[in-house]
Design goal:
By secondary structure, the chain is of the alpha/beta class. The chain folds into two domains: 86 residues, 2-Layer Sandwich (Alpha-Beta Plaits); 84 residues, Rossmann fold, CATH 3.40.50. Helices cover 32% and strands 16% of the residues. The protein contains seven helices and eight strands, in the order ααβαββαβαβαβαββ. The strands form two sheets. It has a four-stranded antiparallel β-sheet, with helices on one face. The protein is globular. The model has no long low-confidence stretch (mean pLDDT 92).
Length: 185
C-alpha cells in the first residue's frame, strides 16, 4: 500500500488540478466495441446492430470503433460470430502505435485475453506470423477462445516468461503492454 501511495504522490507534483484528474480517473469509460475486420466491415456491423435497436456512435479517430449506448451487445449473434470485440477504446491505442503490417512477424508478449492480439491479426489481415505469448497458464483458455471466435488464422499461442522467451527468432515488431494500458496501473 505504501508503494502505491508513493507512486501516486509523484503525480501530485506534475498534475496541476489533481482533484479534477482524480475525478476523471474514477469515471467509468464508455462501452465500446472494435469491429473485427476479419469477419465484417464497420458498415455491416453498424447496420446489423442499429437494426436490432442498439445505439452506436462512431469514435472519431478510428473507423473500427463504436461507443455502444445500449447494454447487452454481448448477447447478439454478431458478437458470438466474432464480428466485434468488446474493448475500451484506450485498449486499441497500443496496436495503432505498433502499426502492424500484413506479412510481418509480430510478437505479443502478454496476449491474454486477446483484445490487442486479435486486433493485431486483423490489422495484419491474417497474413504473416503472430506469436501470441501468454505466460500465465490460466489465462490461455480465454486467449484461445477469442482467437478462434474472431477467426484469427495467423497466430500461434506460446507460454514463455518474458525473460526466458527463445531468442532465435527475429520479430518485425513486439508488443509488450504490461501491465495492460487499460488497467490504470
Amino acid at each position: 500500500m505504501k508503494q502505491r501511495e508513493e507512486g501516486i504522490a509523484r503525480y501530485h507534483e506534475i498534475i496541476p488540478d489533481w482533484e479534477e484528474f482524480a475525478a476523471a480517473c474514477s469515471r467509468p469509460l464508455p462501452l465500446t466495441i472494435r469491429v473485427n475486420t476479419l469477419r465484417a466491415s464497420p458498415d455491416d456491423v453498424y447496420a446489423r446492430l442499429t437494426g436490432k435497436g442498439f445505439a452506436l456512435t462512431p469514435v472519431a479517430w478510428s473507423d473500427e470503433l463504436f461507443v455502444v449506448e445500449t447494454p447487452r451487445v454481448s448477447r447478439t449473434i454478431e458478437h458470438w460470430l466474432g464480428m466485434f470485440y468488446i474493448q475500451e477504446a484506450v485498449q486499441t491505442l497500443p496496436v495503432y502505435a505498433l502499426d502492424p503490417q500484413p506479412g510481418e512477424t509480430i510478437l505479443d508478449m502478454a496476449a491474454a485475453p486477446g483484445g490487442k492480439c486479435t486486433h493485431i491479426a486483423s490489422r495484419m489481415q491474417n497474413r504473416g506470423a503472430l506469436i501470441a505469448n501468454e505466460p500465465v497458464g490460466k489465462r490461455q483458455p480465454s486467449l484461445m477462445a477469442n482467437i478462434n471466435r474472431l477467426g484469427v488464422l495467423n497466430a500461434t499461442v506460446t507460454s514463455y516468461r518474458g525473460e526466458s522467451f527463445p531468442m532465435h527468432t527475429r520479430f518485425d515488431r513486439v508488443l509488450l503492454d504490461a501491465p495492460c494500458s487499460a488497467e490504470g496501473t
